[in-house]
UniProtKB/TrEMBL annotation:
Keyword annotations from UniProtKB, A to Z: Cell membrane, Heme biosynthesis, Membrane, Transferase, Transmembrane, Transmembrane helix
Localization in the cell: Cell membrane
Species assigned in the record: Sphingomonas desiccabilis
Any one GO CC term of the record: plasma membrane
Transmembrane segments: 24-43, 49-69, 90-110, 116-136, 157-180, 218-235, 241-266, 278-300
Name of the featured protein: Protoheme IX farnesyltransferase
Record GO terms (molecular function): protoheme IX farnesyltransferase activity
């Protein structure tokens, strides 16, 4: 533990908000909402709002517990050293209590107000992110983001279960899409911040296996991701709006991923624009594809 982590000042509400990783939470909430709206049955607006609130709180709890456990790593990385714990604005016990409290409250509220199926999946998603990804995989294997990516893929399942009380093929395909999207998305980021991970001793793929292997893996994972993205259309689970949008957006994703995969190792001082382009587009990609699914469900007869 570094000195910066142990010397703390009083935290304010902005520090607690930062613990929840609000930027990450935005995508989590959106995919959960789309899973709910794509369900074949409606849900009362108040209950729908409650379910989405629970997903947001559960994601915030996972983020807070992740930062509680990784405060020492965050202190060594340029992009994370300004977070509340490594910057010394909060003590670890406060972060732990905040994260556990949010987790318990979100699961309890989901179970009491919505249904047990949604609460159970929410519980699994929080535990998976904290225990499987953060505690077990992150510091031990370069495949951490591959297996751990399942944690971020649960929201569509939770949203669907909140509306229907069960799981079906479409939300499982949405789960697969996010799960397979995570490696190329995250490895694109890891390529241009690899020195941060190296300094912290985190065995991310570019650090352990090198750029060439990482670029190849980005290309390989894009193939099953594309299949999962387009599959709802030919399977009759989504209509033409989703089909056209998913094909077009996935083609662009594939083009960007191919550019990264075929690129040679970046020379010293390279700005890594292809990698940054893929990373930025990958976020837009998920928003648009999931949004198209909702549009398809509500606009087509």
């Amino acid at each position: 533990m570094t000195t910066a982590v142990s010397l703390t000042m009083p935290a304010d509400w902005r520090d607690f908000l930062a613990l929840t990783k609000p930027r990450v939470m935005t995508l989590v909430v959106f995919t959960g909402l789309c899973g709910m709206l794509a369900a074949p049955v409606g849900i009362h607006p108040v209950l729908g709002f409650t379910a989405i609130l629970c997903i947001a709180l559960g994601a915030g709890a996972a983020g807070a517990l992740n930062q509680w456990y990784e405060a020492d790593l965050d202190a060594h990385m340029k992009r994370t050293r300004g977070r509340p714990l490594p910057a010394g604005r909060m003590d670890r016990q406060s972060a732990l209590h905040f994260g556990v409290g949010l987790a318990v409250f979100s699961v309890a509220l989901m179970g009491l107000a919505i249904n047990l199926a949604a609460a159970a999946i929410l519980t699994v998603s929080i535990l998976f992110y904290v225990l499987i990804y953060t505690v077990w995989l992150k510091r031990r294997t370069p495949q951490n983001i591959v297996i751990g990516g399942a944690a971020g893929a649960f929201p569509p399942l939770i949203g669907w279960a909140a509306a229907t009380g069960e799981i079906a093929l479409l939300p499982l395909l949405l789960f697969s899409l996010v799960f397979l999207w995570t490696p190329p998305h995250f490895w694109a980021l890891a390529l241009f911040v690899r020195m941060d991970y190296a300094a912290a001793g985190v065995p991310m793929l570019p650090v352990v296996a090198g750029e060439r292997t990482t670029r190849t893996q980005i290309g390989l994972y894009t193939i099953p991701m594309a299949l999962a993205a387009i599959a709802p259309w030919p399977l009759g689970l989504a209509g033409a709006i989703y089909g056209v949008v998913s094909v077009a957006m996935t083609a662009v994703f594939g083009w960007f991923a191919l550019g990264v995969a075929l690129r040679t190792t970046a020379p010293e001082g390279d700005t890594m624009q292809p990698e940054k382009r893929l990373f930025g587009y990958s976020i837009l990609y998920l928003f648009v594809v999931f949004g198209a699914l909702v549009a398809d469900r509500w606009l087509l007869p």
